[in-house]
Design goal:
It is a single chain. 33% of the residues are buried. It is elongated, with a radius of gyration of 22 Å. Helix 3 crosses helix 5, helix 6 packs antiparallel against helix 7 (104-118) and helix 9 (146-166) runs parallel beside helix 10 (190-201). With 292 residues, it is α/β, with parallel strands linked by helices. The protein is 57% helix and 11% strand. Residues 3-72 form the HTH merR-type domain. One of its GO terms (molecular function) is DNA binding. Pfam families: B12-binding_2 (PF02607), MerR_1 (PF13411).
Length: 292
């Protein structure tokens, strides 16, 4: 069973370490275990209990009241909250728990419930993109394993593909052609697949190339497909901090307008260039496509 430090727990549940310690001292909530050398740690069961406590606390239950409840009562109350698919904080916590325990059934159930209730666009905006950003940070700091990130992202990827297949592309007389790809060293396809969903929903044509496309291939693809726009997504921290250099390499091999989305776009200053449109969030993406 995986062991977590209090700093790991802090990242996983979104509560400061000193608050967790205060819950322990004042209310006896989830005391940590200790190794033979007296090092404090939490296990997966402790993490599950803490996630449930946070879910209740963020939905109006005072810690003093939660502390008087048994684990069974806490679990039952959280189960009731789980069906509130519009509650993004609860669903993010539930997704975290399912990812850490590799529970595909529960993870898929949450995805299906949120999408059925809110639709894919709102689910991506309020639940999945924030969740994946947190997972990426926890992976980089070593709080969770790379396998946890791959488990979650692949299930999300599969679900977006299902939603794309469900769409009936509307007739659009002035539809545009979009070339969708990820540049070298970028592997995370979630945002790009979501862009493909939005484009199909709006009636546009797409050529989807996927991840890590060599810069040298772009000119040949553009000459053959003749897109009106190209679209990339930048989310991987492995790309480094010079995002403008990567965008510049892409544009050097394209002669069509470039749309750039992804979490890195909102974190760095993007240089203004002709034929470049940064899309910082889901609303920017939707607005741009609606205005076409």
């Amino acid at each position: 069973m995986k062991k977590f430090s209090i700093s790991d727990i802090e990242g996983l549940i979104g509560i400061k370490a000193h608050t967790i310690r205060a819950w322990e001292v004042r209310y006896g909530l989830v005391p940590p275990k200790r190794t033979p050398t007296n090092i404090r740690y939490y296990d997966e069961e402790d993490l599950k209990i803490l996630l449930n406590i946070v879910a209740l606390n963020e939905n109006g239950y005072k810690i003093s009241k939660i502390a008087k409840m048994g684990h069974k009562q806490i679990s039952e109350l959280v189960t009731q909250l789980k069906t509130d698919w519009n509650n993004d904080s609860v669903q993010m916590l539930n997704l975290s728990n399912a990812a850490i325990t590799y529970n595909e059934e529960v993870f898929s159930e949450i995805l299906a419930g949120c999408i059925t209730e809110m639709g894919l666009i709102k689910t991506m905006d309020t639940v999945l993109f924030p969740f994946m950003k947190r997972v990426g940070m926890l992976w980089q700091t070593g709080t969770i394993d790379p396998s946890h990130e791959h488990f979650a992202s692949n299930l999300i990827r599969d679900r977006i593909i299902v939603e794309i297949d469900k769409l009936s592309k509307p007739e659009k007389k002035d539809s545009k052609r979009f070339l969708l790809f990820l540049p070298e060293a970028e592997m995370h396809e979630t945002g790009l697949l979501f862009a493909r969903y939005l484009l199909k929903k709006c009636g546009h044509e797409t050529l989807y190339l996927g991840s890590e496309i060599p810069y040298s291939d772009l000119k040949k693809v553009v000459e053959s497909y003749k897109p009106d726009y190209s679209f990339i997504v930048l989310t991987s921290l492995n790309l480094g901090k010079d995002i403008n250099k990567i965008i510049g390499k892409v544009m050097d091999n394209l002669n069509v307008p470039l749309l750039v989305g992804g979490s890195l776009i909102s974190e760095f200053d993007i240089l203004v260039q002709d034929q470049l449109t940064p899309l910082k969030n889901v609303c920017d993406m939707v607005e741009f496509l609606e205005d076409l």
